[in-house]
Design a protein that fits this description.
The chain has 272 residues and is of the alpha/beta class. The chain has a single domain, classed as TIM Barrel, CATH 3.20.20.370. Helix content is 38%, strand content 16%. It contains eight helices and ten strands. Strands 1, 4, 5, 6, 7, 8, 9 and 10 form an eight-stranded parallel sheet that branches. Helix 6 packs parallel to helix 7. The radius of gyration is 20 Å and the shape is globular. The two termini are 33 Å apart.
């Protein structure tokens, strides 16, 4: 009897652990848009470790994508396809980074360049060459953001393209609409003037406002062709722009290549 109870307990535990991963879900259709933040080692005492992916893991993940036939694409390619131009490759994937950290240049850009892949960064304009001033330093020390020189080099290489992440990274839902509109329009204007390229893509800081009609209307009015949420999932492609923004797949610091595969095929890797 004891052995039977032990067997049931072990089996139940294994089943529960297995169910945590989403292998049993049906396939998720749509354009996979991966979202990273910081590539490197989290500072001592960091409470935001999920936002840090080690250079070794990032390299392994990009190599896995390429080995499995995925084709990393740029914002401009997605924008052209959305407007009826050249269709995206069947296995297109967007590699995106939020905020524009210096480590996106020192680690991510160099890894992408070495492997022959492409990426895209959403830039907070007012923090270029400064620090991530919207973060609470009690949660994690401020770190350096990429400089304009770094951004220019990445753009000229053809490895990286850029989109807007507002002027100062506010929660847009907490701003008066006129202030939110300024964050959206001014960041596009300033980035285009500084980099000499159209900023066709926008990501909502914290994901706030992506599914709020009044806020999203401001993004569309500002002239962005593509807008991205922080909601977990894949958005069907071809994309119905009027139905909502493009969802993304959040890659966490603890994720491995199995997580990556489940994200891409199931729209999420774990339930908790």
């Amino acid at each position: 009897m004891l052995n039977e109870l032990l067997a049931v307990t072990v089996f139940s535990g294994a089943a529960l652990a297995s169910a945590r991963w989403t292998w049993w879900r049906g396939a998720a259709r749509g354009l996979p848009a991966l979202v990273y933040h910081k590539i490197g080692k989290p500072p001592e005492g960091s409470k935001l470790k999920d936002l840090w992916v080690s250079p070794e893991k990032f390299r392994s993940q990009v190599a896995w994508l390429l080995a499995h036939g995925y084709v990393p694409v740029l914002f401009s390619e997605v924008s052209k396809a959305q407007k009826g131009g050249k269709p995206l490759p069947a296995n297109a994937v967007l590699i995106t980074f939020d905020d524009g950290y210096e480590n996106n240049y020192t680690h991510a850009y160099k890894i992408l360049r070495e492997l022959g892949a492409k990426g895209n960064i959403f830039i907070v304009f007012n923090t270029i060459g400064k620090a991530n001033l919207w973060h609470d330093p009690g949660t994690e020390p401020w770190i350096n953001m990429a400089s304009m020189k770094m951004l220019t080099e990445m753009q000229e290489s053809g490895v990286m393209e850029f989109g807007s992440h507002t002027m100062s990274h506010p929660n847009l839902e907490k701003l008066p609409l006129e202030d939110a509109a300024w964050e959206l329009t001014e960041s596009k204007k300033q980035l285009e003037a500084a980099l000499g390229r159209e900023m066709s893509a926008f990501a909502y800081p914290y994901g706030a406002g992506a599914y709020t009609p009044a806020i999203r209307a401001l993004a569309l009015k500002a002239g962005y062709v593509l807008d991205f949420s922080f909601r977990q999932g894949k958005t069907p492609w071809p994309w119905n722009r009027e139905a909502g923004p493009i969802d993304r797949l959040f890659i966490k610091g603890g994720d491995n290549n199995l997580d990556l595969r489940l994200q891409l095929t199931r729209g999420a890797s774990r339930l908790w």
